[in-house]
C-alpha cells in the first residue's frame, strides 16, 4: 500500500513538473457545443493555456459530412468564410454573419515546434438556428355541421424544426380544448409537431378566421388568416334539388317526343336529321341538368 502511494505521488508530481517546467501546448474552449442564430455573429473559442513557442502555427478546419476543409490557413481566412470571418487573439474564430451552411464541426489546431508536446487540437460543434419561413396553410372554405375536417400547416426551412400553433379570430387555440371554458365544446385535436388541426365533429361555433404560426428558437412566421364557414345540413334543400332535377328530365323527354311526333326532326328517314335529333336532345339535357344541379354558395352537401 505504501509502495502504491509512492507511485501515485511520483506520477502526480511528474505531471505537474511537465506541465509547468516542460514546454507543452495545451488548448481549451469555453464550449464544445455552440448554438448561433442565422445572420448573427458567433465566436468559437480556442484558448491556448500553455505554450513556449513565440509564433505557433494556428489552423482552423471545417468538418462537414466527415470531409475537412480549411477555414484559416497560412495566416488568412479561406473557403466560404473568406469574407465573413476573422481570427481573434489568441486563436479564436469569429464568424461575423452566420448562415445555415455554417452548421458543422470546427477543429482548432495549434503546432509549436519548440515545445516538448508540439501539437494540440480541439473540436467545436456549431449549430445554426434558422427562423421559420411563412408556413403553407390549408383551411377548407366551408364545411357542414357534424362532419369531420382537417386544417393543415407546414414549413420546411426552420431549424430546429418548427412547432405549430393555430389561432381562430386572432385568439390562440389551446392544445387541448377541454382546458378552456371558451373551447370546451370543440372536438378538435391539435398536433403541434405536424401542424394538423383535426375536427372530429364540426359545430357552428367552429366557424371563423383561422391562421397558423410556426415557431422555433430563432423566431416565428405566420400565414394569412382564412375563413372557414360552417353550414347546417339542409336535408329539405337536397330533396328539392333532386326533385327539380327529375322534373326537368321528364320535361325534356316529353318535349323531345312532341318534337318528333310533329316531324320537326325525323330519326327514321335521314341520317342528317338523325344527328340533329341527338344534338337537340343532349343540348336540352345538359342545359336542364346543369341548371338544376350546379352547386351554389348557399348549398353544401
TrEMBL record:
Protein name: Junctional adhesion molecule 3
Keywords: Cell junction, Cell membrane, Disulfide bond, Immunoglobulin domain, Membrane, Signal, Tight junction, Transmembrane, Transmembrane helix
Transmembrane region(s): 6-27
Keyword hit for Manganese: no
Membrane topology: Single-pass type I membrane protein
Predominant place of localization: other
Family: Belongs to the immunoglobulin superfamily.
GO MF term set: cell-cell adhesion mediator activity; integrin binding; protein heterodimerization activity; protein homodimerization activity
A biological process from GO: cell migration
InterPro entries: Ig-like_dom, Ig-like_dom_sf, Ig-like_fold, Ig_sub, Ig_sub2, Ig_V-set, JAM-C
Location relative to the cell: Cell junction, Tight junction; Cell membrane
Organism: Astyanax mexicanus (Blind cave fish)
Gene3D superfamilies registered for this protein in UniProt: Immunoglobulins (2.60.40.10)
PROSITE patterns reported for this sequence: IG_LIKE
GO CC annotation, single: plasma membrane
Residue span(s) of domain Ig-like: 23-125, 135-228
SUPFAM superfamilies: Immunoglobulin
Amino acid at each position: 500500500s505504501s509502495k502504491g502511494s509512492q507511485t501515485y505521488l511520483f506520477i502526480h508530481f511528474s505531471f505537474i513538473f511537465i506541465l509547468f517546467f516542460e514546454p507543452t501546448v495545451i488548448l481549451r474552449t469555453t464550449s464544445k457545443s455552440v448554438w448561433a442564430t442565422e445572420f448573427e455573429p458567433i465566436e468559437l473559442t480556442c484558448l491556448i493555456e500553455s505554450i513556449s513557442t513565440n509564433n505557433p502555427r494556428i489552423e482552423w478546419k471545417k468538418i462537414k459530412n466527415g470531409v475537412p476543409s480549411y477555414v484559416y490557413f497560412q495566416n488568412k481566412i479561406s473557403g466560404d468564410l473568406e469574407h465573413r470571418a476573422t481570427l481573434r487573439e489568441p486563436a479564436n474564430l469569429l464568424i461575423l454573419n452566420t448562415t445555415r451552411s455554417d452548421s458543422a464541426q470546427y477543429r482548432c489546431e495549434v503546432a509549436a515546434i519548440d515545445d516538448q508536446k508540439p501539437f494540440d487540437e480541439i473540436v467545436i460543434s456549431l449549430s445554426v438556428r434558422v427562423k421559420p419561413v411563412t408556413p403553407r396553410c390549408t383551411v377548407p372554405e366551408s364545411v357542414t355541421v357534424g362532419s369531420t375536417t382537417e386544417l393543415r400547416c407546414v414549413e420546411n426551412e426552420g431549424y430546429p424544426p418548427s412547432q405549430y400553433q393555430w389561432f381562430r379570430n386572432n385568439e390562440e387555440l389551446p392544445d387541448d380544448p377541454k382546458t378552456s371554458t371558451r373551447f370546451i365544446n370543440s372536438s378538435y385535436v391539435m398536433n403541434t409537431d405536424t401542424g394538423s388541426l383535426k375536427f372530429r365533429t364540426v359545430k357552428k361555433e367552429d366557424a371563423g378566421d383561422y391562421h397558423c404560426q410556426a415557431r422555433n428558437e430563432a423566431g416565428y412566421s405566420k400565414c394569412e388568416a382564412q375563413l372557414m364557414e360552417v353550414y347546417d345540413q339542409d336535408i329539405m334543400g337536397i330533396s328539392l334539388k333532386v326533385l327539380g332535377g327529375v322534373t326537368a328530365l321528364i320535361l325534356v323527354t316529353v318535349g323531345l317526343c312532341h318534337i318528333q311526333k310533329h316531324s320537326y326532326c325525323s330519326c327514321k328517314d335521314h341520317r342528317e336529321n338523325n344527328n340533329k335529333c341527338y344534338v337537340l336532345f343532349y343540348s336540352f339535357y345538359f342545359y336542364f341538368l346543369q341548371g338544376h344541379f350546379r352547386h351554389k354558395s348557399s348549398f353544401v352537401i
